[in-house]
Write a structure and sequence with these properties.
Blueprint: H1 3-14, E1 18-23, H2 25-28, E2 29-30, E3 34-35, H3 37-52, E4 56-61, H4 64-72, H5 81-104, E5 110-115, H6 117-121, H7 123-138, E6 142-147, H8 161-171, E7 176-181, E8 186-190, E9 196-200, E10 202-203, H9 207-211, H10 226-238, E11 243-247, H11 253-259, E12 265-267, H12 276-284, E13 291-294, H13 296-303, E14 309-310, E15 314-318, E16 326-330, E17 336-341, H14 346-352, H15 357-364, E18 371-373, E19 378-380
Parallel strand pairs: 1-4, 1-7, 4-6, 5-6, 7-11, 10-12, 13-16
Antiparallel strand pairs: 2-3, 8-9, 11-12, 13-15, 14-18, 16-17, 17-19
């Protein structure tokens, strides 16, 4: 790491007043004793240390499904969503009991906050969740956040808690997102048998290029891997939040990170922070699953000229959606270039795609504008 980057990190860390820490299942789980208590005790003590320094902490914790599996003495991760929900219901209570014990030793009261994707999809719920977390911090309580696996379906899942942690960091305006895993960070090479080579210390503008070749190691109790952590890093970075991926099994890792001594991967914040509404469209709100395919001219107009998407530039409409649903906008090659809120239903859009404004008025018998997605409701990816 060069001196300029280290100096930038020193400045960023000096100004951190609020941090989101995500602990993965592989950190928490222990095959023999259910929980890796020594590691969890160490992390709890370090979080207490941060709070004593005046730094607010929000903890995003995986491990409920794994804890339920260990408690019920079953093997492997369930493939059925209903079994996964049942195991989460068993494990979440046990996990929170342990956190209450560990943080209680430091005079800290934890609060359980369970979220689903739908809680962030709806703008008002998104704002309500933010208010709840803010009030918990104000009264000195430690929020411990997890996806509500007991009620989440595949359609309503974040995918893993890395993405959830990034979204929490974004909406809470955290100064740092810390993703604790079982590796020292992102490596250029990850070979079979656990051999890692070439730790990437800093990722600045090339996160997509690194994402393209990073592969995940597999664990039956864990949903996320290094790719998901890089994706989470991209989400948080877009909001101007630095991200660090570090080894949570190392004793004292949090203190080492804040002193700049730890081996880890840092993802630098984007130089231009994404506006709150655009950030919500890009990451917090999930797409309807539908797509509109645009021609090359429309793609250039959207990406390079900041224009709205007109019906004349649309070549295909895929899936079903209603007015104001969030849809993916893709190029002719299939690359997603943007997302946006549509002004037409899929049935109407199929009738007018590729048409001019005059033709649209005749087809729909209305004076409605030909703008399918207004630029204010469109975000580039």
């Amino acid at each position: 790491m060069n001196e300029l980057v280290r100096h930038q990190l020193d400045i960023l860390l000096k100004d951190v007043k609020r941090v989101v820490i995500k602990i993965g299942t592989r950190i928490i789980d222990d095959e023999k004793t259910r929980f890796n208590r020594p590691v969890m005790e160490s992390i709890a003590a370090e979080i207490a240390g941060l709070r004593q320094k005046g730094i607010e902490v929000l903890l995003v914790s995986s491990g409920a499904v794994g804890a339920g599996i260990r408690a019920l003495k079953v093997k492997g991760r369930p493939t059925s969503i209903h079994l996964r929900q049942a195991y989460a219901a068993v494990g979440q209570g046990q996990l929170m009991n342990l956190y209450a014990e560990l943080f209680g030793r430091h005079g800290i009261i934890p609060a359980q906050v369970l979220l689903t994707r739908s809680d962030l999809d709806r703008r008002q719920s998104y704002l309500n969740a933010n208010e709840t977390l803010q009030h918990l911090l104000t009264i000195g309580v430690l929020p411990i956040i997890n996806e509500n696996d007991t009620v989440s379906t595949d359609e309503l899942k974040f995918g893993d808690n890395d993405q959830l942690a990034a979204l929490v960091a974004g909406k809470m305006n955290a100064g740092l997102l810390l993703l604790l895993t079982t590796e020292d960070g992102v490596y250029r090479e990850f070979q079979a048998g656990g051999q890692c080579h070439g730790l990437i210390e800093v990722i600045d503008n090339d996160i997509d290029a690194i994402l393209a070749h990073v592969k995940d190691s597999q664990n039956p109790l864990s949903m996320g891997g290094m790719r998901s952590k890089l994706t989470a890093g991209k989400i948080a970075s877009a909001k101007g939040i630095p991200v660090v991926i570090a080894n949570g099994l190392r004793t004292g890792i949090i203190g080492e990170l804040f002193s700049g001594k730890a081996h880890a991967t840092w993802i630098m914040p984007a130089k231009k922070r994404m506006a709150a509404w655009k950030y919500y469209l890009a990451f917090a709100k999930s797409p309807s699953g539908a797509k509109v395919v645009v021609d090359d001219g429309a793609a250039v107009a959207i990406r390079e000229n900041g224009k709205s998407l007109l019906a004349s530039g649309i070549r295909d409409t895929i899936g079903h959606f209603q007015v104001k649903d969030l849809v993916q906008i893709t190029s002719l090659s299939g690359q997603e270039i943007a997302r946006g809120l549509v002004n037409f239903s899929s049935s109407d859009l199929r009738r007018i795609q590729g048409r001019s404004s005059e033709e649209i008025r005749e087809i729909l018998n209305t004076g409605k504008s030909a703008v399918v997605v207004h630029r204010n409701n469109l975000v580039l990816l």
